[in-house]
Structure formats: structure tokens, C-alpha cells
Specification:
7 helices, 3 domains, four-stranded antiparallel beta sheet
Length: 361
């Protein structure tokens, strides 16, 4: 006995049956009608769709013995963060939690960076950026405007994995066009359903994913972009006077985030080509990567940590462009005062409007 082909309604997902009266395939749930050839073509498209193929080659170059001999590794006894510096660096405060860092042992054994973007802005620029960040913040606790906090800013090279790939992508969408009209007796709504397909090639260069679990991903993404055209081949001399975060998230562990950024960017580019519809919903995505590779780079970042009422606040500035980000604490007393003033003003305005409406109506 031969099996019967079952078709699923593209509009609602229900099983479609042949309707004798119309001689078409009809969905008994949403009552949409289809030509048989249309459903066959749709079914063939579904069969041709494939899974994502997103594989990458990751870096493997190690530090040489001569390079490693000139470096020192430091461990924070409080948060466990590990940083590196040149042989002349002294133990310092941890850029992650502010506690004292002590030298544990000689640096050894991790991948060597391919590139580094040198610091373009110094500590004075970071101080000024921090001051500007505090300006005009009426609900900020006054203690945050103290100069004592500004001196805690530290320059650190943050590890980033840079992913490059050529992608061939295919996305299938479910789309609708909705039309409304009425006559003297009824209101009408007509909804037309469409299957859209978009495909093409797109290249990605230097997708950044930070390689430090100590650095919040949203904080590092907030100070992007960095100008990779100003990157140079890595040399230990660039670390003089600064610390460098030792990566603890490998390139392999960063692939998922790189893939998500590829998928998000591809979806945004393809979505721009689907205008003219009332709604557009992606149903299936297939992305195949070619020439996927990753490089290891150090990006310059100024970091400041401070605490308020037992809560830690971290601020970051792009050491190349000067972009400054970070959350600020709230002065609850000032907030209550301003909220009271605004509520009073709103009450007065509402009363005035009510009086005017009553008068004119």
C-alpha cells in the first residue's frame, strides 16, 4: 500500500485536505485554499532546506620562550582574575574587583596575540570622560563626584577573538498582506499569505568576541566599535605601562557567540529586502560558512570599578575612540524628591485641563 502525501498548511500549520466543491486543497482550520501545484512546490522547497554549517579555524601560535621570559602573571586572591604585564610591572590593584593583586609565577603557555590596537587615549582622557559621564546627573549620589574615584581608572588590554568568514545564507519567511474595507453593512478584512525566500552571499570581517569571563559581554559590546585598521602586529613593547587580561574563554568557546552575531547580522540584512508586507516572520534559516577563521587581538580599554551601598559599578572607556559607558547608582532621596515634584506638577496640570474641559463642554 502506497503512502498518501500529507500537506501542512503554511498559514496555520494544520493538515490540508482535498475539497471536492472547489477542486482545490483546503485547510479545514483557517479555510485557506491552495492549488495542488503550489503545495508541491512549497513542499519541495522545504525538502531542500538544510541545517547550518558553521565551522571555524582557530589560532594556534604560542608565545616563544624569549617573549614569555619577559612577562609576569598576576593572580587576584579575591576574584581569581589573572592579568599579565612586562617584567618591570609591579603587583597592582585588580582591574576587576579593586583588591590587591600578587605575583604568583612566571607567565607561560597561552596563545600569542596576532594583533594589538595600541592605546590612543591616556588616563587624563579617561578622567575627563568619566567627569562628563557624571555631568547633569541630578539623581546621582554626590559622593560619586569625588576625585578619589577617578584615580581608580586603569588601562588594560582586553583579549578579543576576531572571526572572519564568507557565508552563503538562505532564509524562508512567512509573510502577510492585510487589507481592510467596509460598506454600509459590514467591515471586511482580507489576509493574503505568502512564502518568501531570500538567499545570497555575505562576508564577515573581524567579528569581535571578548575572551574574558571577567569582562561583562554587554559592557565590552557597548564600547564597540574599535577601528581594526589601526591594529598592528603584536609586540610585547606595547604592554609597557599597561596590564593585559589573560583570556580564559577560548576561541572554541567563543564560536557560539560569533555564530549568533553572524545569524543576527544576516537576518537584519535580508529582512531589509522584505518590505511591502504587513508582517514578515522568519521560519527557517540555513547558513553555510566558508573560510571561517579566527585571530587573537588585544584591544585597549580603560576600566574603573567602584562600589556604592554594597554594589559594584564598572565603567569602561574605549582606549582608541573614547566611547565611555557604565551604569550609575541612584540617589533614592533625590529620586523621591523629584518624583514628588513631578507628581505635584502633573496633578496641577491635570486639574487645570479638567477645569478647562468642563468649562468648554
Amino acid at each position: 500500500m502506497s503512502s498518501v502525501q500529507e500537506y501542512i498548511c503554511p498559514c496555520c500549520g494544520g493538515a490540508i485536505a482535498f475539497d471536492i466543491s472547489t477542486q482545490k486543497m483546503k485547510c479545514p482550520y483557517c479555510e485557506t485554499e491552495f492549488e495542488i501545484d503550489t503545495l508541491k512546490n512549497y513542499d519541495e522547497c522545504l525538502k531542500q532546506e538544510s541545517e547550518n554549517e558553521m565551522e571555524w579555524q582557530v589560532p594556534s601560535e604560542q608565545w616563544s620562550e624569549s617573549e614569555a621570559s619577559g612577562m609576569r602573571a598576576y593572580i587576584c586572591n579575591s576574584c581569581g582574575g589573572e592579568i599579565i604585564g612586562d617584567a618591570n610591572s609591579a603587583a597592582s590593584d585588580c582591574p576587576y574587583c579593586g583588591n590587591h593583586v600578587v605575583m604568583k609565577n612566571q607567565f607561560s603557555g597561552t596563545l600569542k596575540p596576532d594583533y594589538v590596537i595600541p592605546f590612543k587615549l591616556d588616563k587624563e582622557h579617561a578622567k575627563e570622560a568619566f567627569k562628563k559621564h557624571l555631568c547633569g546627573k541630578r539623581l546621582l549620589p554626590k559622593v560619586f563626584k569625588s576625585e578619589n574615584h577617578i584615580d581608580e581608572i586603569k588601562g588594560i588590554y582586553v583579549p578579543f577573538w576576531l572571526f572572519n568568514a564568507d557565508a552563503n545564507a538562505h532564509i524562508r519567511y512567512r509573510a502577510t498582506k492585510v487589507r481592510h474595507w467596509s460598506d454600509s453593512s459590514y467591515n471586511y478584512t482580507e489576509t493574503k499569505h505568502y512564502t518568501l525566500e531570500r538567499g545570497g552571499d555575505i562576508s564577515f570581517d573581524n567579528i569581535p568576541v571578548d575572551g574574558s569571563s571577567k569582562m561583562a559581554d554587554d559592557l565590552m559590546e557597548s564600547i564597540e566599535p574599535f577601528d581594526i585598521s589601526q591594529a598592528v602586529d603584536f609586540k610585547t613593547a606595547y604592554l609597557a605601562g599597561y596590564l593585559a587580561d589573560k583570556y580564559d574563554v577560548t576561541a572554541e568557546q567563543s564560536i557560539e557567540r560569533a555564530n549568533n552575531r553572524v545569524k543576527t547580522s544576516t537576518a537584519e540584512v535580508f529582512r531589509r529586502t522584505t518590505s511591502g508586507y504587513t508582517s514578515v516572520t522568519p521560519e527557517a534559516t540555513s547558513i553555510k560558512l566558508q573560510n571561517g577563521s579566527a585571530k587573537y587581538a588585544l584591544y585597549p580599554v580603560w576600566i574603573m570599578n567602584t562600589s556604592w551601598n554594597g554594589k559594584k559599578f564598572t565603567f569602561a572607556m574605549n582606549g582608541q575612540t573614547g566611547k565611555f559607558v557604565g551604569d550609575l547608582p541612584l540617589d533614592k532621596k533625590a529620586y523621591a524628591k523629584w518624583f514628588g515634584i513631578l507628581s505635584a506638577v502633573f496633578g496641577i496640570v491635570s486639574s487645570a485641563l479638567l477645569i478647562l474641559l468642563t468649562y468648554f463642554l
